Recover the amino acids of this structure.
């Protein structure tokens, strides 16, 4: 068995989703190679080579691979696929975009969001927003193309020293898809998907200005900031902060939800968290059903009180 | 330009699903069924493009048993001009769906195909990407804004790191994210009108498509449940409880 993990990166650094995907690959077993596709990727390839369990890094360079365009990346991944029994990507927007395109070009279905590995070709994955977990088996003879559900896999540790093999891209750009720009809110806060602590706010914050309360507490705790869909839809915060079924699915050690009622779609995004704290005015809010520590109270008084105690 | 929109019949968004006692599947008996919400957004976007004068016809297509004609009629009532049912019994996996859609695309020659980014039943998030791969055309997934200008579309995509903007040549496949638009409500006179709009049925055989490399789906189980924890009275107790757990 030989597995190729498709690395996610932003052109500068490797995304943590890659080390999580390597963990999933390790659970399957066999040799693990990582493909880094891009332009000017030496540093990123070195990062991938340092992940424990990786045998070889294929650093594939091409100007048309500089930006994460599925239409450009997929044919290049297919060109690498021949040697491998499994192709694995992260279940992030990057992996969700490119991996099904790869699967179709190879004539196979994809296993989306692997939560657990039961055998070389047998996995568990969620359906119905995580309300059912199914066993799936990929038929013999078909390449296994899959995405690893980030929240289910811990980052594989550092400590590897894989060989880096530099290659030139063997495909060229189809030309019909052009990258324009990435509008990122950016900021200096920890990354929502990898931070051990996350402080999150919901519609009860009432305005973008009031969301400052959440930012202040998060900064004092060194936490990342998340939000419910309601808060994003209301325009309090940008979309990349949304936690839940259609946003990010996260598994921090500590998740603190302020003014979030706990719609099932939100719960789906946090149920792998270590400890869930909920503060909500409504003592009947569904979030208290799954919270480890609940406090029925007004977030506008509770947050400053917590902050003062830190 | 013609726009093709895919719609899937799924268990309604508000239904709490129940797993069958033998773990063989999810109970859909007597359960409310609806258009997959992401597909409703896809149809709304197509209708808005047509209303803005950038398309002449909107065709809805569904792959499924005759029951899915109900959702196609809802699509017609929303404003689609025509409907196509690809008749098939039992579940269809994304690769087969994409192959069937490709055949419909070859027949209909749309300038744009809009699909939901995922169906809320199997949560696969694959069909749009697969269709564009097989078609050899651009994909713009997870769209939150679509702007058309001549032979190109500029699409804003909701990605983990923010909003990514790409430009694609038409024809192309776009898949929708939640914030693209808010679908309209269907009005009663439109439901009456929809009954007279054309709905054609094709079979997989007629399209020359059969399932291949299907992933075998086995046991269904409920997810592990989190237990309700403790309630504290104030911020002090909350901070103490966190310190006790070594989290602060």
């Amino acid at each position: 068995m030989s597995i190729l993990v498709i690395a996610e990166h932003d052109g500068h650094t490797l995304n943590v989703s890659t080390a999580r995907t390597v963990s999933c690959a390790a659970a399957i077993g066999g040799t693990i190679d990582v493909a880094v596709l891009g332009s000017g990727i030496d540093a990123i390839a070195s990062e991938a080579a340092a992940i424990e369990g990786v045998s070889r890094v294929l650093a594939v360079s091409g100007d048309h691979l500089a930006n994460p365009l599925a239409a450009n990346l997929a044919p290049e991944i297919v060109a690498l696929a021949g040697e491998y029994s499994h192709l694995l990507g992260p279940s992030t927007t990057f992996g969700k975009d490119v991996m099904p395109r790869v699967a179709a070009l190879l004539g196979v279905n994809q296993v989306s969001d692997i939560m657990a590995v039961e055998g070389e070709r047998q996995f568990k994955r969620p359906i119905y927003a995580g309300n059912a977990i199914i066993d799936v088996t990929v038929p013999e003879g078909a390449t296994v193309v899959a995405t690893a559900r980030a929240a289910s896999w811990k980052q594989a540790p550092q400590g590897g020293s894989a060989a880096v093999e530099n290659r030139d891209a063997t495909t060229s750009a189809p030309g019909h898809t052009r990258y324009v720009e990435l509008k990122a809110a950016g900021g200096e806060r920890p990354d929502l998907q990898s931070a051990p602590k996350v402080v999150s706010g919901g519609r009860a914050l009432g305005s973008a200005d009031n969301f400052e309360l959440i930012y202040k507490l998060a900064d004092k705790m060194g936490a990342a900031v998340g939000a419910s869909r309601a808060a994003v839809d209301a325009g309090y915060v940008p979309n990349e902060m949304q936690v839940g079924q259609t946003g990010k699915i996260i598994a921090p050690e500590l998740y603190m939800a302020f003014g979030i009622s706990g719609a099932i779609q939100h719960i789906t995004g946090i149920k792998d968290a270590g400890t869930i704290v909920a503060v909500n005015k409504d003592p009947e809010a569904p979030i208290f059903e799954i919270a480890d520590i609940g406090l029925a109270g007004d977030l506008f008084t509770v947050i400053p009180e917590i902050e003062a105690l830190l | 330009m013609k726009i093709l929109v895919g719609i899937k019949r799924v268990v309604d968004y508000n239904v709490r699903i129940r797993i069958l006692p033998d773990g063989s599947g999810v109970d859909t008996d007597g359960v409310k069924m609806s258009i997959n919400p992401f597909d409703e957004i896809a149809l709304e976007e197509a209708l808005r493009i047509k209303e803005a004068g950038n398309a002449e016809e909107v065709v809805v297509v569904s792959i499924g048993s005759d029951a899915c004609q109900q959702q196609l009629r809802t699509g017609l009532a929303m404003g689609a001009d025509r409907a196509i049912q690809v008749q098939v019994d039992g579940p269809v996996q994304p690769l087969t769906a994409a192959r069937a859609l490709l055949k419909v695309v070859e027949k209909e020659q749309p300038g744009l195909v809009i699909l939901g980014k995922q169906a809320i039943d199997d949560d696969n998030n694959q069909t749009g990407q697969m269709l564009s791969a097989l078609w050899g055309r651009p994909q713009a997934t997870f769209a939150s804004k679509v702007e058309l200008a001549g032979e190109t579309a500029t699409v804003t995509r909701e990605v983990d790191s923010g909003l990514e903007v790409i430009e694609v040549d038409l024809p192309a496949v776009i898949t929708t994210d939640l914030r693209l638009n808010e679908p309209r409500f269907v009005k009663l006179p439109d439901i009456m009108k929809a009954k007279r709009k054309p709905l054609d049925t094709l079979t997989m055989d007629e399209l020359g498509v059969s399932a291949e490399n299907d992933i075998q789906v086995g046991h269904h189980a409920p997810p592990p449940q989190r237990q309700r924890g403790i309630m504290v009275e104030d911020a002090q107790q909350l901070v103490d409880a966190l310190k006790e757990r070594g989290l602060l």
Notes: The mean pLDDT of chain A is 96. Chain A has eight helices and 16 strands. Chain A touches chain B through 88 residues (CB under 8 Å).
